[in-house]
Design brief:
Blueprint (H helix, E strand, L loop, with lengths): L3 H11 L6 H13 L2 H17 L1 E2 L6 E2 L5 H4 L4 E8 L2 H10 L4 E5 L17 H10 L4 E4 L5 H14 L5 E4 L15 H9 L5
Parallel strand pairs: 3-4, 3-5, 5-6
Antiparallel strand pairs: 1-2
Helix pairs in contact: 1-2
């Protein structure tokens, strides 16, 4: 039987997304092997991030200033908005260096089984942005899973009456992949989204 303090630590790690019981246990024991000074640095980093970071009042991305760097950047195309589920999705798109518009972070996707309904997401502020800021195009940058698709359909239904162009990120085979290893949904999307050479 594990000491109570280790068990509590494992339980805390197990609450993190993508962390199962075995990984939680490995993390807890890994922490215990480290010197106290490194653990203090980790704890201070977590506290500092939680204290210093805010939610941008325009796009709802995590930021150190309000509005965030992207929303306050005068070079960005403010009429082009990419809607994403989470702040880490913004970072993934930014790493491509291909998008020069702005973002809108929903902070989740629709998932009624987990109690995530439209009122729990940043949907009303998206509609207000489109209605009041002359947005020309909304790109739905949501994952192609059941929740992402449901959210995209819901948003499309709300946005269409506002006479704004609504698009989705193209889907298909990733570069360097083999067709034989692609799942049916990915391969089907690649066929639908094919383009002329």
């Amino acid at each position: 039987m594990l000491p109570n303090s280790i068990q509590k630590l494992i339980e805390q790690f197990n609450k993190l997304p993508g962390i199962g019981p075995k990984t939680a246990e490995r993390l807890a024991f890994w922490l215990l092997k480290n010197p106290q000074s490194e653990l203090d640095e980790l704890a201070a980093g977590i506290k500092e991030a939680k204290k210093d970071l805010i939610s941008c009042s325009v796009c709802h991305n995590i930021a150190q200033q309000n509005p965030c760097n992207v929303c306050s950047d005068q070079v960005r195309d403010k009429k082009l908005v990419c809607v994403v589920a989470e702040p880490h999705d913004v970072q993934a798109i930014e790493r491509t260096g291909q998008f020069q518009g702005v973002y809108h972070v929903l902070n989740g996707v629709l998932n009624p089984l987990e109690g995530i309904t439209p009122d729990k997401l940043n949907i009303d502020s998206l509609i207000d942005r489109v209605r009041n800021n002359g947005i020309a195009e909304v790109i739905l940058g949501l994952n192609p899973d059941i929740e992402g698709e449901s959210t995209a359909l819901y948003l499309n239904k709300l946005l269409k009456p506002l006479m704004v162009k609504v698009t989705r990120l193209a889907r298909g085979l990733p570069s360097g992949s083999d067709i034989e290893y692609a799942d049916e949904i990915t391969l089907g999307s690649a066929l639908k989204n094919r383009r002329e050479l």
